[in-house]
Amino acid sequence: MRVLAAMSGGVDSAVAAARAVDAGHEVVGVHLALSRAGGTLRTGSRGCCTIEDAMDARRAADRLGIPFYVWDFSERFRDEVIDDFIAEYRAGRTPNPCMRCNEKIKFAALLERAIELGFDAVCTGHYATLVETPGGRELHRASDAAKDQSYVLGVLDADQLAHCLFPLGSTPSKAVVRAEAEARGLTVAHKPDSHDICFIPDGDTKGWLAERVGVAEGPIVDRSGTQVGTHDGAHAYTVGQRRGLALGRPAPDGKPRFVLEIRPVTNTVVVGPKEALATAEIAGSRVSWAGRSPSVASFACDVQIRAHADPVPARAELVDGEVVVTPDLPLDGVATGQTAVLYEGTRVIGQFTIDRTRSAVPVEV
Amino acid sequence: MSIYLDHAASTPLRPEAREAWLEATEVVGNASSIHANGQSARRVLEDARERLAAAVGCDPIEIVITSGGTEAVNLALKGLWQTRRSGTSDIVLPDGEHHASIDPVEWIARRDGVGIRSVPLTTSGAIDAAAFAAALPGAALATALVANNEVGTVNPVADLAQAAAAERVPLHLDAIAAFGHVPVSFAQLRGDARPGAGLLAMSVSAHKVGGPIGVGALVVARSARLDPLLHGGGQQRGLRSGTQDVAGAAAFAVAAELAVAELAEESERLSVMRDRLIAGVLATVAGAELLGDPIDRLPGNAHILFPDASGESLLFLLDMAGVSVSTGSACQAGVPEPSHVVTAMGRTEREAREVLRFTLGRSTTDADIDAALRVLPDAVERARAASGPRPDGRS
Fold it and tell me: Per its UniProt record, what InterPro entries does this chain match (chain B) (predicted)?
């Protein structure tokens, strides 16, 4: 196959590209320039858009003896990922920009261009496995549960999965990848993993958002609507958060209070006891299926609501274009905007963006 | 198959220049040393300076050898500004100049709080001579390209130099893309301008004419007052301290001499091939358009707009097919920026991303043109498909 290896400058994508070469594919390395204001040098574990990262990717491609190009997706990235990130926070939701990037950039804009330019597949360093079955290609969890990234790939549909290559999926651990990189003479073998949001180079998400969303003081209320404090910008709060609320007086019951909800229209933060975080139902209408669509309108599954959350057994129902998921045990700290990925064992069934939640604990009036 | 059509980025080293370089490296010694070894090196250096001076049309003492074109331009602009900064005002910087000029001028403007007077380009990419003249009165200095390195349009430099002389404004000409490809004579362009005014400095580069990368020169008129960038041993009139690169100068001189000697014949050969390339592209690719002046252009330059095809995709597809071309614009970490020259010609930013620059040179043959014409239509078709929306409407 003609394979386009997306190379971030990190160790995973470099080893993935190397394995694609070993598998006999005709591989071309491409580094995505996602930011026009990228720093020149990498700082700590942040970012993937610096000149140094592009250089690392180029040197890895040199080492593998494959052609290498830098493609500019900065405009698409700004429009589809960064602006979306800001808009979601403005709307009081908690977005996952990496999923958005996979959905709109890596496996959309890049994949489309790759296909048109004559490639058969896009190869990345994601930890997930593809399984061929008579019913079509399936997306499964990686062998190494600790590194599994099937959650952030949950947005891929059948068409996209048909043009993917994830050579690292069956690797037992990241250590193996680093050792392999070292053995292959790749200079990125010991480069630290990137963790933070790549377009917020100093890692100060709160400050970055404050500049763009604006800071306005607003009320902190309890579930009955009584004001218990003030905040300096609702976007800085996340559902489930306990620290940093700076509430003057304790709750009547003396228990710590947690952020339960953000109401952007009134710039209000709702707080309450930990039990009130328990979510009995989540639902959303922005749905995609990884491979085949479910054949029945109601099915058992596991639901995962964060990249590193544990999957929880649940029942999913399709009602009027909406997926409604009822977990067997209540979920903790669910925020709208988050993505729920549904699994059947290790197989990704599909995903949806959480539009609404129902608490397990009714409001006491 | 490898077809090299990016000679404006760098053209292959001439064998004669390589020979001269190797020969010069056999000479032991520092050209500034007083002993016999130093004198031998100095002889080779000054021979080279004389030959280079003859090729660019100036006196040998006016040649300052630099590490390349960018250093030459920086020396000219910062050096001239430094001696004029008190009591004078703006710098004249036409649109569409090379970044080697834009960036130093913007740096000076930021640092010293002076204004930049821009001069519009015509739709064919030439500096508007009347607008240039109108921008000059009272300016501290002015700069201009002899020929645009991207779109290939040759500027009316005689008019620009004359206007600068008349307004007594110091002028620097960036001849890096033009020298060796169209006739350029410093003395002729300077004419009878008063001391310290008119054309005072002109930049040239070795690797654009078959010399080595890493060597350039600034022609500095005797009457020019400029401060050096590099301070030290006071070599080259004190304008460029540092041990002189004898071998680089020798190789540059040979390449420059040959380029000028072959200019008439070679520009005829190149422009015939270039016109065949242009005609072939326009005939086979729907919507393709030649940018820049069709007549007053560098003989080896074909700069073509391919509507709805991104230069980035085209570059990739042609490279995969073994054809090396360029988008012509500045790169940051390998990312082609939309061309500021193309937008200065009144085109949209989108169009400024849809251009390719083909530049022919000494090693270019008819077979290269044939090969490029063979692969282009398919590449454009594919690039257009890759730029467009998906058939299923998903974006």
Answer: Aminotrans_V_dom, Cysteine_dSase, PyrdxlP-dep_Trfase, PyrdxlP-dep_Trfase_major, PyrdxlP-dep_Trfase_small
- Chain A residues with CB inside 8 Å of B383's CB? 117
Q: What is the pLDDT of residue B178?
A: 98
Contact A148, A127 (CB under 8 A): yes
CATH 3.40.640.10 is right for the domain spanning B15-257? yes
Three-class secondary structure assignment of chain B: CCEECECCCCCCCCHHHHHHHHHHHCCCCCCCCCCHHHHHHHHHHHHHHHHHHHHHCCCHHHEEEECCHHHHHHHHHHHHHHHHCCCCCCEEEECCCCHHHHHHHHHHHHHHCCCEEEECECCCCCECHHHHHHHCCCCCEEEEECECCCCCEECCHHHHHHHHHHHCCEEEEECCCCECCECCCHHHHHCCCCCCCEEEEEEEEHHHCCCCCCCEEEEECCCCCCCCCCCCCCCHHHCCCCCCCHHHHHHHHHHHHHHHHHHHHHHHHHHHHHHHHHHHHHHHCCCCEEECCCCCECCCEEEEECCCCCHHHHHHHHHHCCEECECCCCEECCEECCCHHHHHCCCCCCHHHCEEEEECCCCCCHHHHHHHHHHHHHHHHHHHHHHCCCCCCCC
Cβ B335–A33 below 8 Å, yes or no? yes
Distances (CA, A) of B30 to B66, B224, B231: 16, 28, 18
Assigned domain for A293 exists: yes
Interface contact A184, partner B, CB < 8 A: no
Structure tokens that stand for B65 in this block = 């050898």
Domain that holds residue A257: 215-276
Confidence class for position A96, pLDDT limits 50, 70, 90: confident
Q: What is the pLDDT at residue A43? A: 47
User: Cα–Cα distances in Å, from B90 out to A359, B151, B198, B341?
Assistant: 67, 27, 16, 22
How do residues A134-183 score in pLDDT, each as one tens digit?
A: 988 999 999 999 999 999 999 999 999 999 999 999 999 999 999 999 99
- Enumerate the residues of chain B whose CB falls inside 8 A of the CB of residue A51: 332-333
Question: Which ipTM value was assigned to this complex?
Answer: 0.86
| Statement to judge: residues A72 and A125 lie in one domain | yes
* Domain final residue pick, A260, A276, A292: A276
Q: Does one domain contain both A93 and A222?
A: no
CB contact under 8 A, A108 and B395: yes
Check A117 against B334: CB less than 8 A apart.
no
For chain B, which ranges sit under pLDDT 50? 390-395
* A46 in any annotated domain: yes
pLDDT in tens, A178-230: 999 999 999 999 888 877 788 887 778 888 888 888 778 889 998 888 888 88
Does the domain at B3-9+263-387 match CATH 3.60.10.10? Answer given as no
Tell me the per-residue pLDDT of B254-297, one tens digit each, with 9 for 90 and over.
999 999 999 999 999 999 999 999 999 999 999 999 999 999 99
Q: Clarify whether residues A252 and A291 are in a common domain.
A: no
The yes-or-no answer on residue B331 being catalytic is yes
User: Per residue in A15-24, pLDDT tens?
Assistant: 999 999 999 9
User: Angle at CA A87, nearest 5°, toward A84 and A88?
Assistant: 85
**Taking the model in full, what pTM does it have?**
0.88
